[in-house]
Automatic annotation (TrEMBL):
Residues making up the signal peptide according to the UniProt record: 1-26
Protein name: HupE / UreJ protein
Originating organism: Altererythrobacter xiamenensis
Superkingdom, taxonomy of origin: Bacteria
Entry's transmembrane regions: 191-211, 231-253, 259-276, 285-303, 315-341, 353-373
Keywords assigned: Membrane, Signal, Transmembrane, Transmembrane helix
Length: 376
């Protein structure tokens, strides 16, 4: 009982320390989205920018009064353009500019019409897009392309972020390798921006070298046993999230984020507690698969919200999933040597408890913010 009181006290104290820290973010939906509707001599861009990110980047108000909208219009015009291969910029007109709530938090919405300056139109154009990106390193913009009259769904063209704010858009359909690569990069960007997924994997692996006896962690596996346990856990998580990612996206099912997001945070909390004291010892594989299924719902929801071709093709969906796996494998490759070295040292126990307590505290914060008890 004393151990549980100690664990709860540590988690509560750390959580209270983290409550004011708005930078402790977990899984998020796409930051900005630009959908390009390609016509013969014009391109119409539907723009979605989170109002909170816009306000942070500019210091401007997210209001619909004349002065605020004038500032927003000038900001977008200065940070968005389309040019042909000669470098000549297309004419630009911004319409339907407003701050509105479509679903979730308030967004800055706009329609930008780009018109070719001459009669000839190149086979490819370059979009330059830097609203919010220049001021916010972890913000990114998803660029989609809808070729009018083609009957095709919107296609994922790529991602833009700080230091990479230009993308070439072919007027015809992109090749398979470009679509696959864009989907893979989307997976990488998503998992890198999803601290909750990374935190879950960290604490899941943290207890892999340990052996449970009488309801406590009381021993260590040998190196071979630790590596085997790590591989089994990572494989179980991969199987779980891959099944729900593919199943939900291809079936077209919709699941409310108000349920999925707190559930993901709860898996992080349970796993963090397990890293302190065993609560599902010798059932780690089953738990990794089940929790992977829950995290896969978050991945699927992200793909569905992009409204891109990545969710309608097994090949590009596989590219997105492979992008997720790339980051997971990279984390394991970096973490395992440190873990194997640390597990035989006296520091292992305090480091394990400290990391598990910190992750547990963040997960409590995510849970209460995602169910609306405090601002997220």
């Amino acid at each position: 009982m004393r151990n549980w009181i100690f664990i709860a006290s540590v988690l509560l104290a750390a959580c209270l320390a983290l409550l004011p820290a708005s930078g402790v973010k977990g899984h998020t939906t796409p930051d900005s989205q630009v959908t390009l509707h390609i016509h013969d001599r014009r391109i119409v861009a539907d723009v979605i920018i989170p109002a909170s990110e816009y306000g942070y980047a500019t210091g401007n108000l997210d209001a619909n009064d004349e002065g605020s909208l004038k500032s927003a219009r000038a900001y977008i015009a200065a940070h968005a353009s389309i040019a042909d291969r000669s470098g000549e910029e297309w004419d630009e007109r911004i319409d339907n500019l407003r701050f509105a709530t479509v679903s979730g938090p308030k967004d800055l919405l706009a329609t930008i019409t780009f018109t070719a300056p001459g009669d000839a139109v190149d086979e490819a154009i370059t979009l330059s897009w830097s609203p919010v990106l220049e001021q916010t390193p972890d913000h990114f913009a998803t660029v989609l392309v809808q070729r009018e009259g083609s009957g095709e769904a919107p296609e994922l063209a790529g991602l833009l972020r700080q230091g990479d704010t230009q993308i070439e858009i072919p007027r015809g359909r992109s090749g398979f390798s470009i679509r696959f690569g864009s989907a893979m990069r989307l997976g990488i960007e998503h998992i890198m921006g999803g601290l909750d997924h990374l935190a879950f994997l960290l604490v899941l692996l943290l207890a892999a070298p340990l052996v449970a006896k009488n309801g406590r962690w009381q021993g260590l596996r040998n190196h071979r046993g630790s590596i085997r346990a790590l591989v089994i856990l990572a494989t179980g998580f991969t199987i779980g999230h891959s099944l729900t990612l593919v199943g939900v996206v291809l079936s077209g099912a919709t699941l409310p984020g108000s349920v999925v997001e707190p559930a993901i945070a709860a898996t992080v909390l349970i796993t963090a507690v397990h890293a302190v004291r065993p609560i599902f010892a010798r059932r780690e594989l089953v738990v990794a698969i089940v929790f992977g299924l829950i995290h896969g719902l978050g991945f699927a929801g992200f793909v569905q919200q992009t409204e891109a071709q990545v969710g309608r093709s097994m090949a590009t969906l596989a590219g997105f999933n492979i992008g997720i796996e790339v980051i997971q494998v990279a984390l394991i490759v970096l973490f395992v040597p440190v873990l194997l070295w640390l597990e035989r040292k006296a520091l292992y126990r305090p480091v394990r408890l400290a990391l598990a307590s910190l992750v547990g505290a963040m997960s409590v914060y995510w849970i209460v913010s995602r169910i609306g008890l405090i601002p997220g």
